[in-house]
Amino acid sequence: MRRIWRPLLVLLLLLAAFVYLTNTSLLASRSAGDPILLAHRGIAQRFDTTALENDTCTAERIFPPTHAFLENTIPSMRASFEAGADIVEIDVHPTTDGKFAVFHDWTVDCRTDGTGVTREHSMAELKKLDIGHGYTADGGKTFPFRGKGIGLMPSLDDVLNAFPNRRFLINVKSRDPEEGAKLAAALKALPANRRAQLMVYGGDEPVTRLKSELPEVKTVSRGSLKACLIRYIAYGWTGIVPETCRNMAVLVPINVAPWLWGWPDRFLNRMEAAGSTVFLLGPYGGGAFSTGIDTPEEIKQLPVGYSGGIWTNEIEMAADALKSKPR
């Protein structure tokens, strides 16, 4: 019996040593540089997130305003970049006149003085709306932004022209593959170096369609992210990066990250070599997946020397907190 167990034990020890040496960050070099800050929706009015549903009108539950910026507007994006954002996330909808409107909601009823499905309007019609019309922090007694948002809904062209050298993450709001094709056509009209500054995420169908037409653009959808992480957890201990993880934005909740093989430095190095960018999200608890690194306490949880991406809804807080965090 000893003759059988002795070589098996040696094999197990060798395998354990291989797994350790392949995945320990103690033997990995760190990528130089500061973390990449991604401002989700830019600088926006914050709101109560209790019991949110897909159709909840968040403009009707904002906290008392501390600034004048409205999400998905050029002033908000400019302020986000000035605050320290490297990338700003924006939401888009196709319009009836062949443009893409930059606006979060599926309908215009909540935030604006208009009605109807966003994509059933022309860009010219959407530019006439007051996008600050519906915001209230006191149950409708006052509307602090009413009349101040007329003409502030930009098109995707407006945004890219206003910030020709800035990076954006574009969120496709539908599950329609044809929308992915339309966005791919719009991005194909851009120079290759400009496309390299853009990433796209959203529903599986439109993102898959866009990826098939523009494979060089980094994308992510729920399906592609799930496929990437499951495969990586299954055999990433070998040092092999699954094909599904290549050239994408890899979104990782901060409480899941320590369970990934080679976290942090080996993991970041592997994804970078595969053409992908890692973004840490807030803790995943089975609910919404778009929570960000939004508190100083969460910033403190970042690994020392972390140089990957950070997804945040509080860009000013994140940028300031990182300045005081040990590097």
Structural description of this entry:
This protein has 327 residues and is of the alpha/beta class. The protein has one domain (33-324): Phosphatidylinositol (PI) phosphodiesterase (TIM Barrel, Alpha-Beta Barrel), CATH 3.20.20. Helix content is 33%, strand content 14%. Strands 1, 2, 3, 4, 5, 6, 7, 8 and 9 form a nine-stranded mixed β-sheet that branches. α7 (204-213) links the parallel β5 and β6. The termini are far apart.
Write the layout of secondary structure elements.
Blueprint: H1 2-23, E1 36-40, H2 74-83, E2 87-94, E3 100-102, H3 123-126, H4 156-162, E4 167-172, H5 177-188, H6 192-195, E5 198-202, H7 204-213, E6 218-221, H8 222-235, E7 249-253, H9 265-273, E8 277-281, H10 296-300, E9 309-312, H11 315-324
Parallel strand pairs: 1-2, 1-9, 2-4, 4-5, 5-6, 7-8, 8-9
Antiparallel strand pairs: 2-3
Helix pairs in contact: 5-7
Low-confidence stretches: none
Please state roughly what percent of the residues sit in beta strands, choosing from under 5%, 5-15%, 15-25%, 25-35%, 35-45% or over 45%: 5-15%
Q: How many angstroms separate the termini?
A: 53 Å
CATH architecture: Alpha-Beta Barrel
Query: How many domains make up the coordinates?
Result: 1
**CATH fold node name:** TIM Barrel
| Count of helical stretches | 11
CA-based shape:
globular
* Class by SSE composition: alpha/beta
**Oligomeric form:** single chain
Going by CATH, the homologous superfamily would be Phosphatidylinositol (PI) phosphodiesterase
Strand count = 9
Task: Give the H and E element order.
Answer: HEHEEHHEHHEHEHEHEHEH
